[in-house]
């Protein structure tokens, strides 16, 4: 899921995370080197674009962690040209800068807060989980625990969103309803997964994801 975001958000879902060596050359991607190598090899083995393979892995990962069945499109074209640097929010970004960065890319504050819910299944570099149910996408655990500072560890950027006037109510809403989060996350993921691509030229293969 993280690889999908890091490939798309800087500019386009085009496989440049792997093909332009962004996994090796950029500090924010260093942890993903093993998965980048694996996905690159799989794309070659199955004769599909690297960009599509990254998004396929994300869609399968969401399902494997108990999340909603997300849309999965194929037909993206690969690029070995690096996307812009410095566009990804950092783990210490305040709420206002995150909202602004996402708005610039066409995302709402609701999209932003929904997407960070993917952290529910993640870990820090110290292998500490971001809520008490690691590897499970459960909004009713992640959002309340982050707000109440009850997690094994948290990203400062997430804590900021949980307390910001602009995003606090959205945060609480997802914490109160898994169904609400599922719907918002599914739409936000779909929007993210086609960044820089013409949806009319992509094929909907969502039925393949389970």
TrEMBL record:
<dbReference type="GO" id="GO:0034599">
    <property type="term" value="P:cellular response to oxidative stress"/>
</dbReference>
<dbReference type="GO" id="GO:0000302">
    <property type="term" value="P:response to reactive oxygen species"/>
</dbReference>
<feature type="domain" description="Plant heme peroxidase family profile">
    <location>
        <begin position="1"/>
        <end position="124"/>
    </location>
</feature>
<keyword id="KW-0408">Iron</keyword>
<protein>
    <recommendedName>
        <fullName>Peroxidase</fullName>
        <ecNumber>1.11.1.-</ecNumber>
    </recommendedName>
</protein>
<comment type="similarity">
    <text>Belongs to the peroxidase family. Cytochrome c peroxidase subfamily.</text>
</comment>
<dbReference type="Pfam" id="PF00141">
    <property type="entry name" value="peroxidase"/>
</dbReference>
<dbReference type="GO" id="GO:0020037">
    <property type="term" value="F:heme binding"/>
</dbReference>
<dbReference type="InterPro" id="IPR010255">
    <property type="entry name" value="Haem_peroxidase_sf"/>
</dbReference>
<keyword id="KW-0349">Heme</keyword>
<dbReference type="GO" id="GO:0046872">
    <property type="term" value="F:metal ion binding"/>
</dbReference>
<dbReference type="InterPro" id="IPR002016">
    <property type="entry name" value="Haem_peroxidase"/>
</dbReference>
<dbReference type="InterPro" id="IPR044831">
    <property type="entry name" value="Ccp1-like"/>
</dbReference>
<dbReference type="InterPro" id="IPR002207">
    <property type="entry name" value="Peroxidase_I"/>
</dbReference>
<dbReference type="GO" id="GO:0004601">
    <property type="term" value="F:peroxidase activity"/>
</dbReference>
<comment type="function">
    <text>Destroys radicals which are normally produced within the cells and which are toxic to biological systems.</text>
</comment>
<keyword id="KW-0575">Peroxidase</keyword>
<keyword id="KW-0560">Oxidoreductase</keyword>
<dbReference type="GO" id="GO:0042744">
    <property type="term" value="P:hydrogen peroxide catabolic process"/>
</dbReference>
<keyword id="KW-0479">Metal-binding</keyword>
């Amino acid at each position: 899921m993280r690889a999908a975001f890091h490939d798309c958000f800087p500019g386009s879902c085009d496989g440049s995370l792997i093909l332009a060596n962004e996994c090796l050359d950029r500090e924010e991607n260093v942890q993903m080197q093993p998965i980048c190598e694996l996905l690159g090899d799989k794309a070659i083995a199955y004769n599909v674009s690297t960009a599509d393979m990254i998004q396929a892995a994300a869609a399968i990962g969401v399902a494997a962690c108990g999340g909603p069945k997300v849309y999965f499109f194929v037909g993206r074209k690969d690029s070995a040209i690096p996307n812009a640097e410095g566009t990804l929010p950092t783990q210490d970004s305040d709420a206002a800068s995150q909202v602004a960065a996402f708005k610039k890319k066409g995302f709402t504050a609701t999209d932003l807060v929904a997407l960070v819910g993917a952290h529910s299944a993640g870990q820090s570099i110290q292998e500490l989980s971001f809520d008490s149910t690691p590897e499970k996408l459960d909004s009713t655990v992640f959002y309340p625990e982050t707000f109440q500072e009850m997690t094994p560890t948290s990203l400062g950027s997430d804590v900021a969103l949980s307390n910001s006037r602009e995003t606090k109510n959205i945060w609480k809403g997802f914490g109160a309803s898994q169904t609400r989060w599922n719907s918002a996350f599914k739409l936000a993921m779909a929007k993210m997964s086609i960044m820089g691509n013409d949806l009319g030229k992509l094929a909907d293969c969502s039925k393949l994801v389970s």
